[in-house]
Specification:
With 224 residues, this protein is mainly α. It has eight helices and no strands. Helix 2 crosses helix 7 and helix 7 packs antiparallel against helix 8. Bound molecules: protoporphyrin IX containing FE.
């Protein structure tokens, strides 16, 4: 077998792939949050819709979007492979997989949080991405404003961001361990970067539904 594929199919290779795809997805979230914060401008969603139009119409961005969705699928598929691999090794009773109770609980929580983030993403894409890309909806800002005037969606999104924060926190911990970055020299820098991702990003996202629910935003097209 080609050495690259042999590595990618090994247990370490799967962990490295998991870490790299996870880090790239987390970087996407920075861009996504920056764009979404335009929703807080008091301009009837004009700036956000302009941004969404640019993102939807630019061929380079469309190619990047295919790359992004492939990364999401690869992260999920590889996570499932890693999990199944660990499970079968544990069933066979290999000593190395005899995890202590904390590790077992943490890895179980990672799977549960991954499944819940997946549920969130499915709802999220159906709610915003499908109308923007496939149903010719041009006033996505109004759709977001309308959605976040409904308490159900505000609670749903806030819960999802909390779970995402958990998933990112533990994801970063294991990614840094896998990549061997947890040396004393870089420890505090790494911890600072991790906090930006698992704490600041979800809080940044949470501000959007909360602000819209409590202070408005004008769902011009969706007002009934
Ligand atoms: C309040 C928070 C959020 C808002 C208002 C929001 C809004 C949107 C909108 C309007 C779109 C589709 C239109 C477009 O791309 O221009 C979109 C796409 C997407 N969102 Fe979000 N989003 C939020 C949080 C998140 C989070 C936390 C994640 C990941 C865990 C996420 C993942 C995605 C993905 C993967 C896409 C499709 C790719 C893309 O087109 O950029 N979003 N989001």
């Amino acid at each position: 077998m080609n050495p690259f594929f042999r590595f990618i199919n090994s247990s370490v290779g799967k962990k490295v792939l998991m870490s790299l795809t996870g880090i790239f997805l987390a970087i996407f979230l920075i861009e996504h949050l920056a764009g979404n914060l335009l929703l807080l401008k008091n301009d009837n969603g004009e700036a956000f819709n302009g941004f969404a139009k640019f993102m939807g119409g630019n061929p380079v961005v469309r190619v990047l979007e295919v790359g992004l969705l492939s990364l999401v699928l690869l992260h999920i598929f590889n996570g499932a492979r890693l999990w199944l691999g660990n499970r079968s090794a544990r069933d066979k009773g290999y000593g190395v997989y005899r995890l202590n109770e904390n590790t077992t609980l943490q890895s179980r929580m990672m799977k549960i949080s991954a499944a819940l983030v997946f549920v969130f993403l499915t709802v999220h894409m159906k709610k915003f991405w499908v109308p923007a890309r496939f149903q010719g909806e041009h006033d996505i800002a109004s759709l977001v404003y309308y959605t976040f005037q409904q308490p159900f969606y505000v609670i749903f999104y806030l819960t999802a961001f909390f779970i995402l924060g958990y998933h990112l926190r533990h994801g970063f911990q294991s990614a840094f361990q896998t990549m061997g970055f947890r040396t004393k020299k870089y420890q505090s820098l790494i911890e600072f970067a991790a906090v930006l991702f698992w704490l600041v990003l979800p809080i940044g996202f949470a501000v959007i539904p909360l602000y819209i629910y409590f202070f408005g935003g004008s769902p011009v097209a969706f007002a009934q």
